[in-house]
Each structure stands twice: as structure tokens, then as C-alpha cells.
Amino acid sequence: xxxxxxxxxxxxxxxxxxxxxxxxxxxxxxxxxxxxxxxxxxxxxxxxxxxxxxxxxxxxxxxxxxxxxxxxxxxxxxxxxxxxxxxxxxxxxxxxxxxxxxxxxxxxxxxxxxxxxxxxxxxxxxxxxxxxxxxxxxxxxxxxxxxxxxxxxxxxxxxxxxxxxxxxxxxxxxxxxxxxxxxxxxxxxxxxxxxxxxxxxxxxxxxxxxxxxxxxxxxxxxxxxxxxxxxxxxxxxxxxxxxxxxxxxxxxxxxxxxxxxxxxxxxxxxxxxxxxxxxxxxxxxxxxxxxxxxxxxxxxxxxxxxxxxxxxxxxxxxxxxxxxxxxxxxxxxxxxxxxxxxxxxxxxxxxxxxxxxxxxxxxxxxxxxxxxxxxxxxxxxxxxxxxxxxxxxxxxxxxxxxxxxxxxxxxxxxxxxxxxxxxxxxxxxxxxxxxxxxxxxxxxxxxxxxxxxxxxxxxxxxxxxxxxxxxxxxxxxxxxxxxxxxxxxxxxxxxxxxxxxxxxxxxxxxxxxxxxxxxxxxxxxxxxxxxxxxxxxxxxxxxxxxxxxxxxxxxxxxxxxxxxxxxxxxxxxxxxxxx
Length: 579
What we know:
The chain has 579 residues and is of the alpha+beta class. The protein has helices spanning 21-24, 143-154, 248-258, 270-276, 285-296, 305-316, 323-326, 370-378, 382-396, 401-416, 421-436, 448-471, 480-534, 539-562, 567-576, and strands spanning 10-16, 37-41, 48-58, 61-70, 80-86, 94-100, 107-114, 118-128, 157-162, 166-168, 173-180, 197-202, 206-209, 215-217, 223-227, 233-239, 334-345, 358-368. The strands form 4 sheets. Strands 10-18-17-12-15-14 form a 6-stranded mixed beta sheet. A 4-stranded antiparallel beta sheet has the order 1-4-7-6, with no helix packed on it.
């Protein structure tokens, strides 16, 4: 800022040496240097105070300083002369001894005594009268200030805030963007056609425009453009990704359920319990889990919204509730952190090049209570269901394998009908455990191992099929796989038993026939062999003849031995022996 004041001052200050006044009169020795500093005080409405600072050369002794003016209304009685300090650090003591006013002149003379020769800084003060004050201002901006002005006119300030920093899945976080000038002052947004837009982007979950705002969605609702209102506000809602398929009324119903208290007189809502509990296994969570289970299993008046919401969360990523992958999250919470970014643009057109006027980001978190509820509270209930199924199965198993399996399949179908996806999975677990641990007061039926195997095969196949049926449009959601596999296995076992029995009978018959045939063949062979042995030229008859011949020879020998034996007789005997 530069103040311009039109003041004409004509002042002359002269120095006179220490000569006698009557001899030298007012001899002008030197004109003082120009002003070093001038200060004009204009704050008083009628009086203007002027202060000048000059460097004045002084000589040792008494100096006469002559000050005069013209065309200026200086009130001479207000003139003050003060020595401030010597120059160049020199020890100089100077003071005003007297002042005189020459007659009929706009002037005065100060007598100043100096202890030594040298220059001194002096200040001359006086009051100007009859001055007309007018002020004119001119701002002079350098290049940096011009650049700053351009930046301020080009860019805006964008502030993000959230209704909370922590939410439970099922709740919706409200993120608000506020647009102002860079210095925080409000903008003129009265013209709706020229209001800027805010592009919201989230790295987790999906976005939804708040009620009352003009918006344009993006793919998967992870990006959303919202036009600011007259107050410079744009607002979105962030929620879990699987909630995209639910209507506004259904989302409000889920939020309302989480805001209820699990028990009469409970000081906290279920959402507060979920966010305050240190771990999913805290004792305080048991009441919340029980309330969730009751609402999930509630029957009548159609499928509960909470049941559909939880099942949709499970279907989006089944591994969240699979024990091998999520057992750690039954001991500690899983919090999903969502970073929401916002970019201010002059319009919503995607063809606008580099239109970002401001940007900001904020982070909120969502706590997963669904998977811990499934693993910590809901699935462990299979123990109670196992006993119930076992009692029913004992009364359904009869004397026939196929009929027994059909009865068991029918019982399971009736019990899981209209249940949620996770509830049906829990029932199948109970069926598998119940049939494997079934005990009887008397001897179990002989086909019991086949029945157990058939039912278990059926439950294992149906576990997989339930997920496929749930994500297949128009697919039957009943336990058809369990019925088909278990029934087929039972019929196969029964058919195998009947075939085995028939084969056994056929083998026994063929074996008996083969035995009889062998016996007949043996009899025939014995007769033939006997005939062969006894025929006239057979070996038996031949031996008999040889024996009789030998016997006759022996008898002849005996008669001859009755006499005297000689050498010829012995030779004859030896010659008759068989060789």
C-alpha cells in the first residue's frame, strides 16, 4: 500500500559558526542534507504531525541551525529540534541551548552546543495546519501474487467427513464432501447448472448416493459421481459389496435390526456390542449371536431379510466361513478398511480433460460379524441337532435297506425345507454325524453299514450342490442330490444283495450237478477198470496162470528133494526161477 499526500514544504536549515551575532548576523553556511526519513501522522481529523530525520554536521562549540519554510502552514510554536545520536559511533554530546524567531519571517534559529565536531542524527517535529486529507490506495502485486490469485480462482478446497470411523457389516457409512474456496469461504452455487461434481471412489465395498442428491453410478458401484448442492455438499453411502443386490427398504431393515437390543434392558445395541467386543468369543457377544440365530431361523411371512443378507454374504465368498481358512477369525475380529477418495470436477462429463479442482480421502472400517457368528455360535449347534436326528432315524430304519433310506431322505427333506443356505448346511452336518454314530438297543440290521455309507455319500454330495443350486438361476433348492445319491446307493446295495443271493443259489445248483456227474463218471470208470483187470488176457488172469504153473513146478521140486539132491537138480531148480 502506498499513501500519496500532496504536501509542499519549502524549508531551509543553515548552520552558523560560533562568531558574534552582531558581527556575522545570519550568515548561511550550509544547507542540511535531504531528509533521511519522514513520518506523517494522519490519524487526527484536524491536526497533521510531521517528523523529519536528517544527518546534520556540527562543529565543536555553539552552532546556529536556521530553519525556514514557505507556502506551508507550519505552526512555528510546535517546532521541536532533538538530537538523537551521533554518527559513526563517535562520542558527541549535543543539546539545544535556545531558540529564536526572526521577525517577519517564516523561520527560527536553534542554538545547539556540541562537545566535539561531527555528524549527528536530529529529528525535527512540527504540526501542519489547514491540510486537506485525501487517501488513495493502489495494490501492486508481483508475479508470485498473481500466480497465487490464479490458483485461488482455479482450485477449490474439498473436505471429507464420515458419520463414524467404525461400522458393523450391515450398517452404511455416510461420507460427506464439502466444497469451498481455498480459504474456506462459501462459494456462490445458486446456479444448479454450473455446480461442480464430486467423483467418489472406494477400494472396498460399494457406494450409493444419499437421498436428495443427483448422481451417476459407475461399474460395480465402486465409483460414483455426485453433484454438489447449493450448500456445496455431496454425500454418499458406503456399504459391504454384497449389499448391492438389496433394495433400500431391505438395507434399512438390516440397519434397524443391528440397532435393536438383544435383550430387554440391555444397555447396548447389537452393533455396539460387535464394535466394542475385544474378540468374537467375548461373553457379551453370546446374547447378540442368539438374537441373530433367532432372526435367521425365523419362519413364516416369507424368507427373513437377515437370512437372505447373511446367505448372500456367504455365497459371495464361501471361504469366509470355511474352518481351514478362517479359524483365526474366530479368535479375533476381521476388520475391512475402506479408503474413500474424492475428486472435484467442474462437471460430470468423462471427456473433460484433467478437470480435478481438488481431491481428498478418508478411511473407515467395517467389522465382519457374520463369519464369527457362523463358526462360533451357529455351526456348533449341530451337536443338539445330531441327537434329534439320531432319535428320528432309529424309528425310520426297518427290515428293508431301500425303504429305510427312503424314509431317512424324506425326513431330512422335510426338516430343511424353507431353511436358509447355512441352516441347510448345518442340518447336513448333523445328519452325517447322527447316522455314523447311531446305536441300537438290539442287534442292528445286517445292512446297516450299507445304509450309513449311502447316507454319508448323499450328504457329502449335497453339501457341494447347495452352493451350486444357490447361484444357478431357477435351480431347485431342495436336497435332490442327497435323495438321488443316497437312494441310488441304497438301491445298488439292495440289488447287489439280491444278485449275490441269486448267484449263490446258481453256484450251489451247478456244484451239486457237477458232483453228481463226477460220481457217475467215477462209477463207470470203476466198472471199466474192473472189466479190464478180469478179462481173459488181462493182467490178473495172466498172473493167476503163472502162479498155478509155478506152483506145479514147486510141487515137482518138492518130490524130487525127497530123494538125493545132485548138481543137475539144483541147476534145474535155478533155471525155473523167474528172471
